């Protein structure tokens, strides 16, 4: 907290000294978009969980999007003292998605502030796989395999937005927006056991839905 206050004060001083500039809103203008995930440590992260861009299709009409692509994998090998037939434990997940917002920029109180309204939506496809070594006894022989647990989920959203961009210096803007919309998440888990004769286990689907107002994080856009 003691470090946070000087940082905020410094930002306010820099913003006060910076020369206000025009928000780029002409056809062909483009920017990379970042998002602050909390100001306590100025955690600047990806927009919408992925690579964010804004592009003006026409004067005062922009499309803002995020491409989400994440993959992770981990392998734990058994120790040298373990049964040599014991397989590795493996874990992996991936997340892919696309989020799109159309912005219609309006006349503001000055050229350094550009309010806008619009709408958008997005989807994500998430999958997770966990493979754990499993053994069973067949007669007098110990056999090995992998119990494989998978989880697959989809996310969908649709919303309207109302926000603004403020050009605090050339080629750099800050902005935020209100959102009103709908979100839905559904997933299903399944475990396929290695031991013969053991049935595959399937869970019921888990789901979540939400509708209402929300505020987006603080945006930083870098134009070129």
Which characteristics define this entry?
mainly beta, elongated, 6% helix, Porin
Question: How would you portray this structure in words?
Answer:
With 224 residues, the chain is mainly beta. It has one domain (21-223): Beta Barrel (Porin), CATH 2.40.160. The protein contains one helix and eleven strands. It has one helix spanning 4-17, and strands at residues 30-36, 44-46, 51-58, 61-76, 89-105, 113-138, 141-169, 172-192, 201-202, 206-215, 219-223. The chain has an eight-stranded antiparallel β-barrel. A hairpin with a 2-residue loop joins strand 3 and strand 4. The radius of gyration is 25 Å and the shape is elongated. The chain starts with a helix and ends with a strand. The mean pLDDT is 87.
Outline of the structure:
Helices cover 6% and strands 64% of the residues.
């Amino acid at each position: 907290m003691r470090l946070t206050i000087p940082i905020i004060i410094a930002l306010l001083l820099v913003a006060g000294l910076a020369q206000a500039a025009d928000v780029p809103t002409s056809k062909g203008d483009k920017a990379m978009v970042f998002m602050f995930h909390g100001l306590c440590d100025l955690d600047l992260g990806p927009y919408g969980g992925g690579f964010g861009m804004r592009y003006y299709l026409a004067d005062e009409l922009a499309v803002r999007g995020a491409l989400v692509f994440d993959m992770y994998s981990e392998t734990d090998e058994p120790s040298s003292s373990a049964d040599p037939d014991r397989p590795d434990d493996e874990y992996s997940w991936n997340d892919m998605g696309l989020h799109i917002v159309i912005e219609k920029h309006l006349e503001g109180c000055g050229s350094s502030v550009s309010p806008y309204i619009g709408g958008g939506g997005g989807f994500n496809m998430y999958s997770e796989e966990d493979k754990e070594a499993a053994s069973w006894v067949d007669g007098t022989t110990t056999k090995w395999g992998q119990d494989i647990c998978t989880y697959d989920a989809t996310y969908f959203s649709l919303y309207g937005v109302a926000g603004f961009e403020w050009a605090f210096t050339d080629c750099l803007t800050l902005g935020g927006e209100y959102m009103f919309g709908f979100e839905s998440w559904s997933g299903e888990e399944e475990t396929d056991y290695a031991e013969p004769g053991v049935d595959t286990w399937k869970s019921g689907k888990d789901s979540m839905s939400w509708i209402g107002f929300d505020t987006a994080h603080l945006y930083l856009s870098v134009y070129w």
